Amino acid sequence: MNALSRILSVFMLALAAGALPAAELEVDGDRLEVSGTLDGSAVDAFAAHLASGKIRIVRFHDSFGGTLAAAETYATAIHASGVQTEVTGQCHAACAYAFLAGKDRRFGRGAQVNGLLIPVPTRPRPEELSNRWRDDGGQKTLAEFNPGGSAQPVTPQKDLWQAEQGVLFTSLPTLFGRVYNAYYCDGTQGRDLSRCEILTDTDPYKLGVLTP
Length: 212
What we know:
By secondary structure, the protein is α/β, with parallel strands linked by helices. It is built from 7 helices and 9 strands, in the order αββαβαβαββαααβββ. It has one domain: Alpha-Beta Complex (2-enoyl-CoA Hydratase, Chain A, domain 1), CATH 3.90.226.
């Protein structure tokens, strides 16, 4: 089973269980783990945890989307506190935007397949990829989906980012270390992520998506 098939299996299991769960927070020492949909239900608690100064790492685990407003709130708190962000399992759309706000950004270790799907409205050109997500690139990503800013009203359909469209970075454990790949999913593939187009010359460290 390849990386895309594994990601698809995880997502389909979540769908089979019903609606994707709301965000859940769990503190483990100086690490704050966030799982579920970034729907705004835990934004106040999340911001309070980071404002305490006790959190050094925010770990996102199997978060498949959320709202524009919640994504911006998470990202603002992460950027202001200067914490490191980490992904274990899947982090899509709103989660990916929040992840990009981390001072240092990493995929977790272990036997799981990690995936980061960054929403983009169109297929990025090769020359765009080299600096698209560096520095304030996360804010640019949000602006592409909500040009009027978070204060502007959005419909529920537009506000909820879907997992089908964007650039998907994957990290697959092998006997020889982790293998990184990137794909462009244009949304027409639906839940069949194996139909996404593989992208070349897209090392996430060189592109600034992940930091050493």
